[in-house]
Amino acid sequence: MSGHSKWSTIKRKKGEKDGARAKVFTKISREILVCIKETGSADPANNSKLAALVQKAKSNNIPNDNIDRLLKKAAGGGEKNDYENCVYEGYGPGGVAVIVEALTDNKNRTAAAVRHIFDKCGGSLGTTNCVSYMFDQKGMITVERKPGDDEEEVMMAALDVGADDFDSSDDEFYIFTAPSSLDAVRAGLEKAGMTIVLAETKRIPSSTVDVDEATEVKIRRLLDMFDEDDDVQEVYHNALLPEDDADDE
User: Fold this and answer.
1) Does this model's pTM top 0.85?
2) How far apart are CA 232 and CA 12, in angstroms?
3) Which 3 state secondary structure label does DSSP give 42?
4) d(CA 216, CA 123)
5) I need a labelling partner for 178 at 20 to 30 A (CA). Which of 25, 137, 138, 139 fits?
6) Nearest-angstrom CA–CA distance, 246 and 180
7) Which value, in Å, is the radius of gyration of the alpha carbons in the chain?
8) Using one digit for the tens of pLDDT, what is the confidence trace for 205-244?
9) Would you say 135 and 238 are in contact if contact means Cβ atoms under 8 Å apart?
10) How far apart are CA 14 and CA 78, in angstroms?
């Protein structure tokens, strides 16, 4: 187990400030709108994918009232919903592999912005599949780590409900599954009494690369600039960044 034992050093952490929370809600709102459009259901009780996105919003401290208003507007057709999924691949500073996932209503605008960020931070936008082979798509379930939790017991419980891999940090457990098994494993963990923080499909690097201090600064700048772009939903990379400054990641 723990094949992704360094996940906690490469995951993206969300900001807690009001401005950062508002930007996170903008991004999650788009995911929710696209989910409702694709599934035809605005009821989280009957839509497991939507339920996971609602949980994602809550885990990012988005008020329930904001979430409820968005769901009602989306159900009534009162929210703009013409977003498209786009994936960009490239190389960050030091040749670090980077994948950018976006939801946009203007692909030309987003492509230009992504290219600009790569260029400005000493990287380069690449071609399709230039780095995706370095990542595995996995279902990832983040579970709250409570006082007194026994890590081995949690790991065994996860395996019992179909998990493939397991990792942990000081305050969370990370449970990895096949994407197709994500909903079933999440349901099994909830039944076992665990508190689910997030349940999403992620791109996990098959290996990581160490970077020097100067390169680290450039990579963090690249990640910050992508975070500032409303079209960008997720950014994945294979740089092993020090945990000391993980909150700035």
Assistant:
1) no
2) 13
3) coil
4) 13
5) 25
6) 30
7) 18
8) 998 999 999 999 999 999 999 999 999 999 999 998 876 4
9) yes
10) 28
